[in-house]
Amino acid sequence: MIDKLSKEPLEMAYIRWGSNNRGVTTNKQGYFSINKKSTALTDTAGLIVSFIGFHTQQIKPNTSSLLIEMEKGPVNLQEIVITPQSAAASFHAISKIDLNLQPVRSAQDILRTVPGLFIGQHQGGGKAEQIFLRGFDVDHGTDINISADGIPVNMVSHAHGQGYADMHFLIPELITNIDYGKGPYYTQYGNLATAGYVSLNTTSSIDKSTIKLEGGQFNTMRALAMIDLLNNRQKQKGTNAYIASEFMYSDGPFVSPQHFNRFNVFGKFNTKIGANNKLSIIASALNSQWNASGQIPERAVKSGLISRFGAIDSTEGGYTSRMNASAKLTTYLGNATTWENQLYYTHYNFSLHSNFTFLLNDPVNGDQIRQREARDMFGYQSKFTNTAALGQWNIQSVYGAGFRADQTHNSELSHTINRNTVLAYKQLGDIQETNAFGYIDETLEKDRWQINFGSRLDYLNFHYNNKLSADQLPDQHKWIASPKLNIQYTLNTKTQLYLKSGKGFHSNDARVVTLNNGYEILPAAYGADLGVLLKPAPNLVVNAAVWWLYLQQEFVYVGDEGVVEPSGKTKRMGIDVSGRYQLNAWLFADVNVNLAKPRSIEAAKGENYIPLAPTFTSTGGINWQLKNGFNGSIRYRYMHDRPANDNNSVTAKGYTITDVSFNYTKKKYEVGVAVENLFNVRWNETQFYTESRLKNELAPISEIHFTPGTPFFAKLKCAIFF
Fold first, then answer.
1. Quick one: 99 and 243 in the same domain?
2. Are both 85 and 226 inside the same structural domain?
3. CA gap 192, 507 in Å, rounded
4. Which residue among 28, 131, 410, 647 sits deepest, i.e. has the most Cβ atoms within 10 Å of its Cβ?
5. Cβ atoms within 10 A of the Cβ of 243, count?
6. Which CA distances in Å does 112 have to 105, 117, 121, 240, 587?
7. 672 is a domain residue
């Protein structure tokens, strides 16, 4: 089964026979297989073929081999069918619906389509966002594994923080698939995948070339070009190529303009090599720089020293660049067997100036710091997938192996003034970190049951060359095994139960590992989900789960201070509920509600809160797509008040933000308007309980420091398609 326009295979399309709801799904190659002895082939209705975002087809096969070409069409929730074979497709379809209907303004907004995941920007538009998920303040990616087209986004042993995940190199209009999972239950995702993973994929082809211009308040402007490089004749032969470029500029609502600018270029080429091979080549580049107002203390605003959008140190800001290259060869060894091999390389530069404490440590020069690094990252991964029958059981086997090697040059933490002058180096050195891995994943399916089990084995090696010390610490290394077990039972076409369980881990920073002589190199996470997938009505899908997660003792490298701190054992439990409802052919509603109880295990009761960990979040909205071209949405996101310190004596205030968009889309053009924070709510995007001292203060003060959230912000857009 393929897309009629791009000729790309469609994975997880659903095929059932006649009036029977039970059917099969297509694999990565777009193949599906039906038993010839089945009564399906004699059913007068024939085959019913459906896929989210495509027109449903009814086919009466007269041959044993079919080529089905699907045409894009409206989203229809009725196409989701709950069966043992289509379980994965059901979850895939929910994310597909969200991506098709929810407006995405940036690559970071893509993360917001993951139910329960929140992000916050707190130091200029170019810095990676702070992430919140399942009772975790994930910082910038410590406990969530993020990848794009198989290339890791997270940076291990990063100058600013472990797992730093900067997604600004992605152009949002190119994202065509979001695969995500919560918890440590998935063998293909290793380091950092404790709270969950997000795997993004860019489109293999574009339907039409696009030129888009956007402009709005705060001197905000954006230009986008996506150009299809090949003609239809070449596409018919299975070859696609396009290039896309994006430029963005904004001063933001701040008194001290951000002068944030970002330039992206992305190219992708896909072609068939012979009858059984497909080659995909990707190249991209990012360059970005910005000024920042940073995190400001509440007392400075209350006293009138600065406004909510003012700055104590207006010289904060940063620069980053990233270049990626990837080559992936997919070999089809038969209708049921696929072998994928991928090589990738990333070159990365990062420099960030921050000042969180102002005049606390240096009353004369101030406390500004610089975090900087240059990095080369190499990787290879191989995955072999095979589907077979063993008696009455259908078995899918996945075997994977690979490695990732990171080399940083002059990873730095220094005390600076006005960005230009280095007063002292706190940390300076080179890091080499290697992660080799292998995994086995087996899925057995029979009747109503589906059982998935597997294990992953990771080896990590850490080397740190400390340029501030003549005494070098020895390399450290360790192995870790991560078993997984997931069980699913389908009661009927309306109800499916599942149990997920597994062990995961996140590595500690190489500087932590070597300084602590290898102690607690790979703190493990153990988790379980008990959930249900429901389709009580043709146009309604509900997913609910109760979950639990335990994280071992670890030592954390605090990148802003260059010190090592123990964090202790933690446990988290909670409830996730998501619903998707189609009111009619053009109107859709969705809601996500996420409750969590995060606690430190070793601290006394009342002193065991985990600062900034979310406890209650919710997102949702209404989306519409009319046949006459009018479409849009109104959406909300809610973050409840949460503890800002370990005894909950200080509160990080919650917020409710509403965004709205209206578009008019025709075949050759699109115009639209988007408004963030429709009701102009005063909200704090990120908050920290920090000790600081301002000018003329005799003693330091500990209180909430915050980055103000965007006020009412309107933006117009115009796009031309050709």
1. no
2. no
3. 7
4. 131
5. 17
6. 11, 6, 13, 30, 21
7. yes
- Looking at the structure, do residues 464 and 353 belong to the same domain, yes or no? yes
Would residue 705 count as lying in a domain?
yes
Looking at the structure, do residues 202 and 98 belong to the same domain, yes or no? no
What SS3 state is found at 172?
helix
Among the candidates 88, 103, 118, a domain finishes at: 103
Place of tokens 């043992």: 84
Q: How many CB atoms lie within 10 A of CB 590?
A: 23
- The token duo for 450 is 């589906």
pTM here? 0.94
Helix (H, G, I), strand (E, B) or coil at 54: strand
Residue 224 within a domain: yes
**488-543: pLDDT as tens digits:** 999 988 899 999 999 999 999 999 899 888 777 899 999 999 999 999 999 999 99
Is 90 exceeded by the pLDDT of residue 299? yes
**CA–CA distance, 170 with 266 (Å, rounded to integer):** 8
Same domain, 529 and 424: yes
Tell me the C-alpha to C-alpha distance, in Å, between residue 496 and each of 90, 246, 266, 545. Answer: 11, 43, 40, 12
Beta bridge partners of 444: 395, 451
Integer Cα distance of 562 and 431 in angstroms: 15
Say whether both 355 and 463 belong to one domain: yes
pLDDT band at 35 (very low <50, low <70, confident <90, very high): low
Q: Which residue has the tokens 């026979």?
A: 17
The answer to whether residue 42 is domain-embedded is yes
Residue 381 Rama label (left phi>0; alpha psi -120 to 50; beta): beta
Q: Which residue type is seen at 171?
A: I
Secondary structure element (H or E) that encloses residue 364, with its range: none
CA-based end-to-end distance of the chain: 27
Number of domains in the chain: 2
The beta strand positions in 626-665, using DSSP E, are 630-639, 642-643, 651-652, 655-665
Residue matched to tokens 């370990």:
646
Query: Which of these ranges, 53-62, 113-122, 342-351, 510-519, has the smallest mean pLDDT?
Result: 53-62
| pLDDT one-digit tens code per residue, 400-443 | 999 999 999 999 999 999 998 999 999 999 999 999 999 999 99
Looking at the DSSP assignment, which residues form a beta bridge with residue 483? 455
Helix, strand, coil distribution of the chain in percent, nearest 5: 5, 55, 40
Q: Supply angle C-alpha 210, 216, 221, rounded to 5.
A: 50
Q: How far is CA 127 from CA 108, 243, 246, 427, 685, in A?
A: 11, 25, 17, 21, 14
Whether 200 and 79 share a structural domain: no
Cβ contact 686:707 at 8 Å: yes
- Give the integer Cα–Cα distance in Å for 211 and 222: 11
Q: Which tokens sit at 527?
A: 């988790």
| Cα gap 202→78, rounded to integer Å | 26
Number of Cβ atoms within 10 Å of the Cβ of 721: 17
CATH assignment of the domain containing 500 = 2.40.170.20
d(CA 149, CA 554): 31
Instruction: For residue 471, give the 3-state DSSP assignment.
Output: coil
* CATH code (residue 23): 2.60.40.1120
pLDDT the model gives residue 672: 95
Distance of CA 503 to the CA centre of its chain: 20
Q: How far apart are alpha carbons 261 and 678 in whole angstroms?
A: 25
Q: Answer with the one of 103, 136, 162 that is the final residue of a domain.
A: 103
Alpha helices in 350-409 (DSSP H): none
Neighbour count for residue 477 (Cβ, 10 Å)? 14
Record the tokens describing residue 168, joined without a space.
């600004």
List the structure tokens of 520: 């607690």
Considering the domain architecture, whether residues 83 and 200 belong to the same structural domain is answered as: no
